[in-house]
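To whoever is on call:

I kicked off a structure prediction for a single chain this morning and the downstream step that reads the tokens threw a length-mismatch warning. I double-checked the sequence; it's 338 residues and nothing unusual in it as far as I can see. Pasting both halves so you can look.
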Amino acid sequence: MELAKDTRDRIFAAADSLYEQASRAAFPTVDAVRKVARVNMNDASAGMKEWRRAQTAQAAPVAVQVPEAVQQASSAALASLWKEAQELANESLRAAQAGWDAERIEAETLNKQMADAYESQAAELEAAQGRIAELETAARQAAELAEASRQQIEEGHTSLLGMQQRAAVAEGRAEEIERRAGELRAELDHAHAEAETAAAQAKATADSLRNERDKVQQRQELAETEGVKLADQLRQAQAQAEALRSELAGVKARAESQAEAHQEQRKTAAQEAARMVERFTGAQAERDQAQRDAAAAREEAAGLRGQVEAIKEQNAQLMASFRDSEKADKSVSRTKKD
């Protein structure tokens, strides 16, 4: 797989930086280079293989053909030189074998690093899925709380409407009581006027009788009789006036009692309406908070789902890279056997 130049440059730069940070004691891992270079696992694996090969010293090829000058020497010298040449060739072979072993070790190291990275991402995926499940549970609970708050708000609204209707009825009754009290006051004033008129008439009659008694002495008996009748009338008028006063006092007491009861009803209705408004406001605040919590939970769940998708994609790339690495190892093994 041919890497793009900018991708290779970023991978090599990240590997060089991490190698220098480790004081050239150990090669950086593929996962560390992938995170720093911000590439996928396949590109990181391929780039690191190329970078590791560049860091490994290559074995220099040696000549295996007997030089012409050696052929012209004596047989003993030729044999000695040929033995030395064979030793050099064997050293080159051993150097190549060491290079192959080093590449095999590097390949095994890369495979182990990719397997560790896969396990790490699998653990992150499991943790993210658990977090998503928790957030979905929290979102469902928030939705249930919002529904309960909505029902409570509707009940509070219904109760508030009922209280408003009762308050309107109480106000109507209060107006009726006030109107009735006004009528009773008018009747009381009329009764007072009638009592005063009767008293004035009685006084005028008494004065007339006294004058008549002074003027007509001979009609004393008749005047006395008339005076007794007039006295009876006066007592009746006074009794009527007293009855009217008693009735007026009773009406006034009833009016005051009804007015106090009306005031108490209006006060109770106002307090109940205030409490219902407070409950309604609190329920609305709880519903708004539940809706905000549910929205935040949905947003966080969406973000985690995106992370899970990214991790799944990285795992797929990691497995593909792992399979490519195994194929490359098998190819190297077959080459060594050949």
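Update from on-call: the warning came from a stale cache, not from the record. Cleared it. Sanity check on the structure: Residues 75-215 form the longest helix (141 residues).
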